[in-house]
Amino acid sequence: ARIVVRWRKVRSSALHPCDLLLIVGMNAWRRLGGITTANRRLASSVPSAAGAAAGARRRRVRAWPLALALSGGVATYVWSDEGAQRSIVFWSRMFPIYAHYRATEFLVSRWSPEEQDEAYSKLHRRYSHTVRDLVLQLKGFYTKLAQVCSTRDEFIPKEYMEWCKDMQDQVPPEMTPAQTRALVEQELGRPLSDVFVEWEDVPLGAASIGQVHRARLRDGRRVVVKVMYPDIERRFRADIKTVLDFCELAQPQHVPAFREIERQFLTEFDYQAEAKNLAEVRENLRSTW
After folding, report:
1. Tens of pLDDT, residues 83-137
2. What is the mean pLDDT of residues 3-11?
3. What digits encode the pLDDT tens for the residues 131-173?
4. How far is residue 150 from each of residues 77, 78, 164, 252, measured CA to CA in Å?
5. How far is 211 from 173, CA to CA, in rounded Å?
6. How far, in Å, are 90, 120, 130, 155, 252 from residue 102 at the CA level?
7. CA distances in angstroms from 37 to 28, 31, 42, 60, 213, listed in the order given
8. Rounded to an integer, what distance in angstroms lies between the CA atom of residue 161 and that of residue 163?
9. Residue 203: CB partners within 8 Å, gap ≥ 6?
10. Residue 214 neighbours by CB distance under 10 Å
11. Distance (Å, whole) CA 47 – CA 82
């Protein structure tokens, strides 16, 4: 069956592979749905209704494998791409919450301010822990977003603010001690004992893109070592795209500010540049002590 893909307007010139599969898949189903109409036209223009029915059955037989193949392609892509999996988890949890808030907004539009506040407070109490659990499950950029929200008390409802503040210094580490040691040795290209005489497996703290460990070098200097999580930059970029899409749906007025936050976040993955900046700050402050 010939499929005509109607390209939809996208934000950039590059079309995501999953978007392409979905567009083709939707057009395939649209084609299948149009077979019945085409059959009616064919039946009215030829004397044999039986022949038209037989032709329609043949077209269905040819079209179904194509639709199944497209569905399988989408499923394979989602299964193999971590960013797509994380996006599905986010949307499956957040869209029903968003829909409930929007429905409530419509229902209480004529209520008194006090009644509206109570209705929204019920939603906040109901969903704040659900959103917290989602942040702790996905971590990464969602942890960073919670940390940013926690810096302004008036930015989000207090039911959400309570656990967002915990994200400032109570983020659980993503890696086990064995995973951390293996990653550090891989980056150094030598055993941990060749560089450090002491290494604390329990991290001093964890954040959105890495965790910090105390250690002592072989020359006696005490240091802290920041270890970045594997593939965290790729996950960050995928999560930012997901949240931007959600923001355009739920709160489009905040998209410009969010894009500026995105640009700032993506500078945090260069630990060497960060160390250089810290050294410069240290030198600038030494003369004042």
Report:
1. 899 999 999 999 999 999 999 999 999 999 999 999 999 999 999 999 999 999 9
2. 37
3. 999 999 999 899 998 998 898 888 899 999 999 999 988 899 9
4. 35, 32, 5, 21
5. 7
6. 18, 11, 17, 19, 14
7. 15, 10, 9, 13, 67
8. 6
9. 173, 180, 211, 212, 213
10. 16
11. 55
Q: What is the per-residue pLDDT across 186-242, written as a single tens digit (0 to 9) for each?
A: 999 999 999 999 999 999 999 899 999 999 999 999 999 999 999 999 999 899 999
| Beta carbons within 8 Å of 176's beta carbon, 6+ residues apart | none
Instruction: Determine the Cα–Cα distance for residues 167 and 156; give it in Å rounded to an integer.
Output: 14
CA 197 – CA 183 distance, rounded (Å): 17
How many whole angstroms separate alpha carbon 171 and alpha carbon 39? 61
CB 196 within 8 A of CB 215: yes
**Residue 229 identity (one-letter amino acid):** Y
Question: Token digits for 152?
Answer: 């302004």
Question: Which residue in this structure is represented by tokens 């419509």?
Answer: 106
Report the C-alpha gap between 122 and 45 in whole angstroms.
Answer: 61
User: What sections of the chain are H helices per DSSP?
Assistant: 17-45, 49-80, 82-107, 113-138, 141-149, 158-166, 177-188, 232-250, 255-265, 271-286
pLDDT digits (tens, 9 = 90+) for 31-48: 444 444 444 444 444 445
Give the whole-angstrom CA distance, residue 208 versus residue 144: 5
Helix (H) or strand (E) holding 225: strand 222-228
Angle, helices 113-138 vs 158-166, to 10°: value is: 20
